[in-house]
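Issue 218. Parser rejects a valid record. Input:
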Amino acid sequence: MSTLNALEEKIKGAICPLPGPLARRFFEGKDVLVKFAGGRYRFLRKGHTLQLYDSDIRRIVGDGQIVDIFSTDDLDSVWEKYSNRIFLTKKEFQSYSKHAPWGTRKWRTRKPSVSVFVLDKIRLYQEPTRLNRRMTPNLLYIRG
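Output the parser choked on:
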């Protein structure tokens, strides 16, 4: 077994940072997370746990189980299919789309790609959990 396969087998999910108001939307009926990909989420699979980290209070506030995950550069189809379930408003989604982390327009050679996470069994923790390490801007893998 390769080192990469061994690493992948140990991954049970990830911790995803979001501003507080956006994280709370998952506990108000939203169940689809959209994040710019860039290959960062390649080890996440259906059945993994996605913990929601509220960057305002620096705590993990809840989690959900990934029931579908895919990457695409067709942002319009993502909005069309999941508009009432995405954790962003249409205006926020459009703004997020325009500010894709692919450098300046001059250097963009391809369309931005997003990873779409459809969650189920979303639960709010009674007590937010302190993370015992520094949170990254993108995600931290949960290893078991």
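Fixed in the parser; the record now loads. The chain has one domain: 3-143.
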